[in-house]
Structure formats: structure tokens, C-alpha cells
Specification:
Length: about 110
């Protein structure tokens, strides 16, 4: 999230799976890239933390909850569902053939 806030010309879409975007604190309102947060339905504390982070963001954003999944998405089919959700987000927000800058390591 910090990289997306600090490098908006390089980050065109974000997907966080079971992450802690709340830890990005004051940088959250600066994120411009469309952001999808994916959390397991049985990961109650992380759902709360992701909802709090989402409320601070001003970009296009969405919280997707995978029913029956825990924090590591170890349940059968959970990671496959995460992959489908993330793929659809990227397909929608990243244009094929767009003139994007090359990927660099952020450090």
C-alpha cells in the first residue's frame, strides 16, 4: 500500500490477500490505484482491520470476503477462489497493451 501511495505512476492496480493494509496508516488516503482487499470469511479480526483501512482510502476500492476461509486460505478451493477474484480485478483494471512502465523492484 505504501508503494502504491508513493509510486502512483508505477502501480496501476492492487490486490491484497489476507493482508494488513491498516499498517500503511497515513498513506492509505494517498493510494490512487484501484485496490481490492481479499480476506477469509472466518478471519474476523483481519476483516475488521481491512474494513477500517478501506474506510480511509479514497481510490476505487472493494473488499471481497471468501466464505469459510481462514487467514492462510488453506481450506480446499479457497486459494483457487482468491485467484479467480484477483484475476477478474486485474483484467478489469489493467488494459491489455497499455503503455505501462517496466516493473522495477521498490525498495
Amino acid at each position: 500500500m505504501v508503494a502504491a501511495a508513493e509510486q502512483p505512476s508505477m502501480i496501476h492496480a492492487v490486490v491484497s490477500r489476507g493482508g494488513r493494509p491498516d499498517l500503511a496508516g497515513p498513506t492509505l488516503p494517498k493510494v490512487k490505484a484501484p485496490t481490492l482487499l481479499i480476506v477469509g470469511g472466518d478471519d474476523y479480526e483481519v476483516i475488521r482491520l481491512n474494513r477500517d483501512a478501506l474506510a480511509k482510502m479514497r481510490c476505487e476500492k472493494h473488499l471481497s470476503i471468501v466464505p469459510g476461509a481462514t487467514h492462510l486460505f488453506e481450506e480446499p478451493g479457497a486459494l483457487e477462489r482468491v485467484s479467480e477474484i484477483a484475476l477478474n480485478w486485474f483484467k478489469h483494471h489493467l488494459k491489455r497493451g497499455a503503455e505501462l512502465e517496466p516493473v522495477h523492484e521498490l525498495g
